[in-house]
Amino acid sequence: MFDEAFEKLKNMSECLALELTDNTGEPLFFFEKKKDFGIKEISKKMNFVLQGIHELSNANSLGSIESILVNSSEYSMFSICSGEKERIHIHLFVVFSLNSNIALAKLAIDESIIQALAIVNT
Predict the structure, then answer these.
(1) Mind listing the pLDDT tens digit for each residue in 54-65?
(2) Which superfamily does 7-120 belong to?
(3) Given Cys at both, which of 3, 17, 50, 115 links 37, Cβ 3.0 to 4.6 Å?
């Protein structure tokens, strides 16, 4: 169901793994280039962080959190929220190799989120 929505991301050589969840962290779709990469565990922990930052931001009138980018010594990890006001609110977690073109990655992520939202809202 979601394969087409994430085709562009999956075909990027720098994209190593991704997982789409609902806002509670319930998995909807995942992809790993390398078996046992661990995206499910990564997304579980990143969802916890994203929810915490949502609460912090809302409690301090900072507005809605749209995304978080975390760089480690080997990877770049994105956590993206479709928007709390969406009828069905989804989160996407994507891991890229460190040498990735972040601007290009963000464009592909934005396209994928739009397509995934269209699927979950039908």
Answers:
(1) 889 889 999 888
(2) Dynein light chain 2a, cytoplasmic (3.30.450.30)
(3) 17
